[in-house]
Amino acid sequence: MPVTSAGLLLVRAAGHDLEVFIAHMGGPFWARKPEASWSVPKGEYDPGSEAPAAAARREFLEEIGTPAPEGAEVDLGEFRYSSGKRLRVFALEAPGFEVDEVASNTFELEWPPRSGRMQAFPEVDRAEWVTSAAARPLLVAGQRPVLDAVAERFGGR
What we know:
Elements: E1 4-14, E2 17-25, E3 38-39, E4 42-44, H1 52-64, E5 74-80, E6 86-93, E7 106-110, E8 118-122, E9 124-131, H2 132-138, H3 144-154
Parallel strand pairs: 1-6
Antiparallel strand pairs: 1-2, 1-4, 2-3, 2-9, 5-6, 7-8
GO biological process, one term: ATP biosynthetic process
GO molecular function, one term: bis(5'-nucleosyl)-tetraphosphatase (asymmetrical) activity
Organism: Agromyces agglutinans
């Protein structure tokens, strides 16, 4: 059975463009990668026991460290990675949303490799607003179609 994740992408108008709130993945593998290392705040959930929109909000809180703003989510649909993983993405207009600091959950990893030492790293090390055009090369390849869905739904402004 494929892995199922849900994510919440905050959106706001920026002049004639849209901005999206995306997160840079934490840990040593992503540390020095400026492109294809950002993501919609998201995470795995069990479709049999949790609604996807609720999972998206829970994962946003876990990865960013603050609750997503109130409002009605717009279901952008399901996106499939080449690995078979499925990601359900919701968008939420959040013109006034700002965070001073990201306080993400952590994960453990043997680092350096084959050292026998386990270290904790944040799932997300930073998050910020970027224009949808600037977001395209930053996002991991499997999530780039989300930007097309955002432009279609919110008119590309």
